[in-house]
Design brief:
The protein is mainly α and about 150 residues long. It has five helices and no strands. The N and C termini lie far apart (about 75 Å).
C-alpha cells in the first residue's frame, strides 16, 4: 500500500504572493496599452490598403515606378496591406483579452478569469512562435532560391 502512495504524485501547490499579483496587474496595464496601439496600427494599415489600391488604380503610371513590385497590381497591394493589418489585429486582440481577464482575475481573485488570461498569453506566444518558424523557413527558401537561380 505504501508503494502505491509513493507512486501517486502529490498535489502541486502554487503560492501567489502580493508582489506577483502586483507584477501581473502591471503586465495587464501594459498589455492593454500595447493592444490599443496594435489596433490603431491595424486600422491605419486597413485604411492604407484601400488608399494605396485606389491611388494605383487612379494612376497606372505608379505601377511602372514600382518596378518588379508593380506586377502585383492594385489588388495585390490591397491584399498585402490587409494581411499586414490582420497580422497586427490578432495578437492585439489576444493582448486585450489577456489584459481584461488578468486584471479581473487579480483584482477579484477569480481563478477562471486568471486561467483564461494565462490561456490568452499562451496563444499569443504560440502565434508568434509559429510566425517566427514560418519566417525563418521562408528566409531559408529564399536563400536556396537565390543561390539556385544565381549559380549557373
Amino acid at each position: 500500500m505504501e508503494d502505491i502512495e509513493k507512486e501517486m504524485p502529490q498535489e502541486v501547490k502554487l503560492i501567489v504572493t502580493e508582489e506577483m499579483r502586483s507584477y501581473f496587474y502591471d503586465m495587464s496595464k501594459w498589455a492593454r496599452f500595447l493592444s490599443v496601439v496594435g489596433f490603431v496600427v491595424s486600422a491605419f494599415l486597413t485604411l492604407s490598403s484601400f488608399g494605396i489600391g485606389a491611388a494605383i488604380s487612379a494612376n497606372p503610371a505608379m505601377l511602372n515606378q514600382l518596378g518588379p513590385l508593380g506586377a502585383i497590381g492594385a489588388t495585390g497591394f490591397t491584399i498585402f496591406y490587409l494581411l499586414l493589418a490582420l497580422l497586427f489585429f490578432y495578437p492585439s486582440l489576444l493582448l486585450l483579452r489577456f489584459s481584461a481577464k488578468g486584471r479581473h482575475g487579480i483584482l477579484f481573485g477569480d481563478q477562471e478569469n486568471f486561467n483564461d488570461a494565462i490561456y490568452h498569453v499562451k496563444s499569443l506566444f504560440k502565434f508568434w512562435g509559429v510566425l517566427t518558424i514560418v519566417l525563418i523557413a521562408s528566409y531559408f527558401l529564399l536563400i536556396i532560391a537565390v543561390f539556385s537561380l544565381g549559380v549557373k
